[in-house]
Amino acid sequence: MQLALHSVNSSPAPRRARLDRSEQMAELVNRLVSIQEAREKWLGGIGRTTLYELIKRGELTQVHVGRRAFITAESLAGYMNRLQEAATA
User: Positions of the region Disordered (predicted)?
Assistant: First the structure.
C-alpha cells in the first residue's frame, strides 16, 4: 500500500478538494495504528519481537509513511477475529 499526496498543479486546490483531502487523511489516520499502540493497546502488551513475527508470518499488515511504520487497523481487527474464532472452536 503506497500513500502519496502529491499535487501536479502548484495552484491552490478549490476549497471542496482541500476538505476532501482533509477528510481522506483523517480517515487514513483512523486506519493506521502505530507499532507501539498496536503492542500496548490492541495486543495486550506483547513484545516487539512477537509483533514483528506476526508481521513476518502475514498475520498483520505493516505499512510505512515516510520513515514511520504502522499496522493497519483492518489487519489488527482480522487477527483479533481469528484469535476469537480459534478460542471458540
Answer: 1-20
